Amino acid sequence: MRNLDEDNITRAVLAMHARAQSVRLKQVMTSLVQHLHAFARDVQLTEAEWFEGIQFLTNVGHITTDVRQEFILLSDTLGLSMLVTALNNKKPRECTEATVFGPFHVEGSPHFELGEDVSEGVLGEPCFVKGCIVGLDDEPVPRAELQVWQADATGMYDVQYDALPDGTHEHHARGTLNADERGQFHFRTVRAEAYPIPHDGPVGRMLEALGRHPWRPAHLHFMITAPGYERLITHVFREGDKYLDSDAVFGVRSSLITKWIEHPAGETPDGGHSETAFYTMDFRFVLNPLAVQGELPVRRKRASATRAT
Amino acid sequence: MRNLDEDNITRAVLAMHARAQSVRLKQVMTSLVQHLHAFARDVQLTEAEWFEGIQFLTNVGHITTDVRQEFILLSDTLGLSMLVTALNNKKPRECTEATVFGPFHVEGSPHFELGEDVSEGVLGEPCFVKGCIVGLDDEPVPRAELQVWQADATGMYDVQYDALPDGTHEHHARGTLNADERGQFHFRTVRAEAYPIPHDGPVGRMLEALGRHPWRPAHLHFMITAPGYERLITHVFREGDKYLDSDAVFGVRSSLITKWIEHPAGETPDGGHSETAFYTMDFRFVLNPLAVQGELPVRRKRASATRAT
Q1: Is the pLDDT of residue A159 over 80?
Q2: Residue B17 is part of which domain span?
């Protein structure tokens, strides 16, 4: 393994992986090395460009913290996240589609009772969200757990504000709820608004150099889990948003767009009263049942191969 | 640009780069996105694997400091660095070959006079290095600048030791010298030894999972610059080292291997006396003349196309 050149180095690197701990790791790294090398050969990458790449990744690493995930932003803006979502969420057409996870989910958001206000007073127009969670045969999914999270009216998630003196970020405009026995849920929040992804770092500079804007159309994040069903990570998008066709992270799906209906000041869905106009949004989520062990998931696009026994 | 799936997302991402600031950036990013997506499709990357990748890069970013460059280690161990070196250092066969830069070069190393000891007392067996720097027609390259750097007998570079109280690392076993008017140089140092690349971080864990060792064969780094010649970044390797055929960063070239000759205790090449055995090493560097403006670099492997005037 001496005198490697552009033609034989890829084979030499892969030969070093003969004793990899797992077959899958070896498979993934084989493809990664092949594509990484093919990229460098295709563009005849210069040494200066290579070094710029090293510096770019170093900057991405250094701006990344517990609450800012610039590598996820990078993956999102290069379309990798949406591609991985698409590859891993093949399911019957009737099911609610998945979209990108994004960098702003926080584990352990506070639990709310149905009807409560998850916004915790952040800036924004009042919005009453309701919906139901069903399975493929329209059966209600009782007590399904919903995690919701969103930006406030200034386009910021809670974790983007300076931390409190104890280093934490209060949970604002995010929460965990459980649907009722009929799979129905409702809560209060603020209207989701379009916002730019954080663009004061290396990914923002990359977008600028590529002549791209950093905006995402208004959306509310949902992660829904229930025993017997595939976890669903998705957004609901607001109809009419001007960025629906140029989402910086390529996440928009037509089936996830719905109306946020405006109502004049007056009585609100929770029986209260609003001094200002408010909004309502209603969405029906259809979960994909998990295949029962031993039973072939026949409704999936890519069914497992039948094995002779 | 909605409802992107695994088949059309790559085209959609590339369409967003229509207004990129430079043609070259657009070209590089087009290939990068194509290969990144093809990788994910080829291996049908799972969401869990994607997240493991995000965490891996985050860890690489967080261990990287001014003096520890884990992204370069990653590039080196995946063979990307040697590939980029090979792509960018095509030159006549008579010229000294280039090899990887590595992560341990430091800008502004102290200047030494010919004959001085650059080791600054690090652990190791005494070694007297000499050589000459010539061009393709064997013409001496007067006053060529050499930067040299190496690990000590324990396999550590100075920057790998804890920093001094002022945050700096003293320069040890590295220095800058100028050849004399005849292109000749000599200095004292310690014998280069084989060493493992830093493997207490994410790249080390990657190598372990791939069943690879982290060792590099003994070598001394050189960066040689002189007006009128291409800069040469290379190593000289020590003949007989057991890692010459399994260098963790794929950098060995037969033409760069030479004997470190052992001598018994006694008179040293600088007229001094050694109480212990010592070593000598002698290497002739052949630089590639820069193409004179307007003149075609005919001796290069890939000559520019002749243009009709």
Answers
A1: yes
A2: 1-45
